[in-house]
Every structure is written in C-alpha cells, then in structure tokens.
C-alpha cells in the first residue's frame, strides 16, 4: 500500500487500522519527523512512557539482533515498536536497480512476517523503487514517500495549514508568502508551520489573514529584510529601499547574504523581460521562472517598470559590491549607490 504523507498523518491521528509495517522515505524531513512523532501515540495510546517498549536501530545493525527485537514478546504493554533508521541495512543498488548483498533480502523476509504484537517503522532518506525490497515492503505494509515541495507549488499546502489553525490567507497574504520564499527552491515546511501558528495567534479572532498579518510575523525572521528590500525595489520605491538598507546597516547585518537575495531578484526580473521580448507566452515564462499563476500579473507589472539595460547594469553593480566586500570594500555605501542608479 502506498500513501501520501498527509494521508498517513491523518490515519495515524484518527487511529485508523494500518499494517504493522510503516516505511517512510524521501528528502522532506518535515513529514518524516511529523510521522515519526505520531507513531508512538498511535501504537501505545495513553500508556505511560516507561511501559512503552521502543527499540531504535540507527547504525551498524546486526540482522539477528533486529530479528530478536521483532520477535521478542513485550513484557509491559503487550506491544512493541521497532524503529529502523540504519540506511545501510537497506543496502545499495546497482545500475539496474538490483539490491547488492544478502542483507536486503534477509530484511525483506524478516519484515514480511512481523508478529501481531509488533509495529515496525522504517525511516530513511533513500529507497530505490526499482528494487525487490521496495516492492516487498509495499506489498507487506505502507510505504510513504515524503517529497520536498517546491516553493511555487506551495499554495495548497498553505491553505491546508491555515485551515488547521482555524483561518485562511487572503490572496494578497498568499502572494506575500510566495514572494518572500521565491529565492528558495524547496519550501522550508517546518519553519512555515511555526510561522503560520504565529500568524493565527497574531490575528486573534479574525479568521481571514491579510498581507499585513504575514508581514508583521515574518518580519522577525532573518531573511525578511531581503524580502522587504526586494519588494520595495520591485515597486521602485527608492526612499523605502534606502530606509530599509539603513536599518540593516544599523543592525550590523552581514551584507553578503543580503546581496545574494537582491541579485536573485534582479536576475529574475531581467530574465522575465528577456523572455517577454522574445515573445514567450505567459505559461512558459511562469514555468521557467517558477511564478505561480496568481502571482504572474503582479510580477509582470513590477518587471515592466524597468528596462533591460537598467536591470543588467544593476546586476553588474550588485555583483561588484559582492566582489568588493570580499576584498574589504565599502559595502553598504556601494549598494546604496547601485540602488540610486537603478531607481533614481
């Protein structure tokens, strides 16, 4: 059986019947951690922690020791939980997707016959879907792939998280979050979950959350300064850009990461104008630049306030600031001059 992370989480929370084998894999730690935290409660309910027999195998696992743990009847609670995190136990695969060595075969045989009093949770980053091991695990239990969510695909996830907190983001609030995360290819789900909870508290009794709510909460994050400057830049608001930059200077913010965020924005806007000039259609531009459909018109309007030549020069100017910084250059003063040339 194969389930999506959200489906498995819901079943664990609702205590729905699940196989005794749960396999969670993929590169998104947010989902893996969430599932792993729910499994003990699912297995043991209200049983005190001292009565929960949980054994974790993380490194250099002996298959016979694992077999003994799985087949040993639990003394206290009548149920045991085995957590396998040792990736070496799952073996390596060749170019054809065949497992190397006998250990994966032994593991597959062992996990195909788990006693009814035992639950096994396998948590790993990589699991080759082409292998007999994967197919065997899928036939025996639940396999759940936890993929990272690309930032531009984040809309549905944000809506779901807001609903869980009893609210909803309006269109401008969603756009603000998406713009804020634009420089990040993979969305930081764990961080976003925390910030959404803060927005819910900040909004109080209001169930519709606005751009101002998002900005008030996200402003406390380290990367928020880059977002605020980029947003003011896109709106051609020179006084605000200089004011925000002065604030960062006063705080002693390290300039290199900030320059990186600004360069990302400038290059993205320049690429938009280049593609537009070459008569690419909006769908192609949106796909290439990872612009969500509901943000396209706004981003397009911001980009068309500039000329290609202006943005090219700004990219060169900010890149030079980067170079000079590494050599002990002026930094903030040079960046201010670059913004004045672009927006003045």
Keywords, separated by commas or semicolons:
344 residues, alpha/beta, five-stranded parallel sheet, two-stranded parallel sheet, 16 helices, 7 strands, 9% strand
Kindly summarize this structure in a few lines.
This protein is of the alpha/beta class.
Please give the share of residues in helix.
55-70%
Tell me about the biggest sheet?
Answer: 5 strands, parallel
How widely separated are the two ends?
61 Å
How many helices in DSSP terms?
A: 16
* H/E topology pattern: HEHEHEHEHEHEHHEHHHHHHHH
Strand content: 5-15%
pLDDT below 50 for ≥5 consecutive residues: which ranges?
A: none
What is the number of beta strands? 7
Average pLDDT value? 87
User: Which structural class do you get from the secondary structure elements?
Assistant: alpha/beta
Strand order of the largest sheet: 2-3-4-1-5
Form type: elongated
Q: Which value, in Å, is the CA radius of gyration?
A: 26 Å
């Amino acid at each position: 059986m194969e389930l999506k992370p959200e489906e498995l989480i819901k079943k664990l929370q609702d205590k729905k019947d699940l196989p005794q084998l749960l396999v969670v894999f993929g590169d998104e730690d947010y989902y893996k951690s969430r599932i792993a935290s729910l499994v003990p409660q699912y297995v043991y309910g209200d049983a005190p922690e001292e009565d929960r027999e949980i054994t974790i195998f993380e490194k250099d696992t002996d298959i016979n020791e694992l077999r003994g743990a799985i087949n040993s009847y639990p003394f206290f609670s009548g149920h045991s939980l085995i957590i396998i995190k040792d990736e070496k136990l799952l073996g390596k695969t060749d170019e054809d997707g065949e497992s190397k060595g006998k250990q994966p075969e032994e593991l597959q045989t062992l996990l195909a016959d788990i006693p009814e009093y035992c639950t096994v949770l396998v948590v790993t980053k990589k699991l080759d879907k082409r292998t007999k091991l994967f197919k065997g695990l899928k036939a025996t239990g639940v396999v759940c792939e936890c993929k990272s969510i690309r930032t531009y695909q984040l809309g549905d996830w944000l809506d779901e998280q807001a609903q869980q907190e009893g609210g909803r983001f309006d269109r401008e609030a969603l756009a603000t979050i998406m713009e804020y995360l634009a420089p990040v290819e993979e969305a930081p789900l764990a961080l976003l979950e925390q910030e959404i909870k803060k927005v819910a508290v900040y909004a109080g009794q209001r169930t519709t959350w606005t751009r101002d709510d998002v900005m008030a909460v996200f402003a406390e994050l380290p990367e928020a300064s880059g977002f605020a400057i980029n947003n003011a830049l896109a709106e051609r608001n020179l006084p605000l850009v200089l004011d925000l930059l002065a604030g960062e200077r006063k705080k002693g913010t390290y300039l290199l990461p900030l320059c990186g965020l600004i360069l990302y924005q400038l290059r993205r806007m320049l690429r938009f104008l280049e593609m537009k000039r070459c008569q690419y259609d909006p769908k192609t531009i949106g796909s290439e630049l990872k612009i969500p459909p509901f943000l396209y018109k706004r981003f397009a309007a911001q980009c068309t306030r500039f000329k290609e030549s202006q943005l090219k020069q700004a990219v060169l100017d900010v890149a030079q600031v980067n170079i000079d910084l590494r050599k002990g250059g002026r930094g903030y003063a040079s960046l201010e001059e670059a913004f004045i040339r672009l927006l003045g």
